[in-house]
Amino acid sequence: MTKTLVDVDDELLADVMAQSGARTKKQAINEALEYYREAQRTGPQTAWKNLRRMAADGTLNLDEVERLSNAHKGDRSSE
Asked: Helix, strand, coil: what percent of the chain each, to 5?
């Protein structure tokens, strides 16, 4: 494991420690990194799974998908 010196937002770190139950700063940071890596890996898979389910049960609202996509791109004109 590499030792790295970084500036960390104290308030944010305290929030993460409280929410995660981490007992040390090192534990909180490592858990946050693992959480982020897993979210990046599984996020697209989960999104597709949810879209397939919504399409199958008829709850997929393409207008809402387009609105959210435009909002994500910074185009607020569709709101």
From this structure: 70, 0, 30
Domain ranges of the chain: 10-77
In angstroms, the Cα distances linking 16 to 33, 37, 48 are 11, 16, 29
CA-to-CA dists, residue 31 to 21, 23, 78, angstroms: 10, 11, 38
Token code pair at residue 51:
């879209």
The average pLDDT across 53-58 equals 85
Q: What is the dihedral of CA 43, 49, 52, 56, to 10 degrees?
A: -140
**Burial class of residue 53 (count of CB atoms within 10 Å of its CB; 0-12, 13-18, 19+):** exposed
pLDDT of 78 reads: 47
Q: How large a percentage of the chain has pLDDT more than 90?
A: 41
Tokens (6 digits) for 19: 């929410």
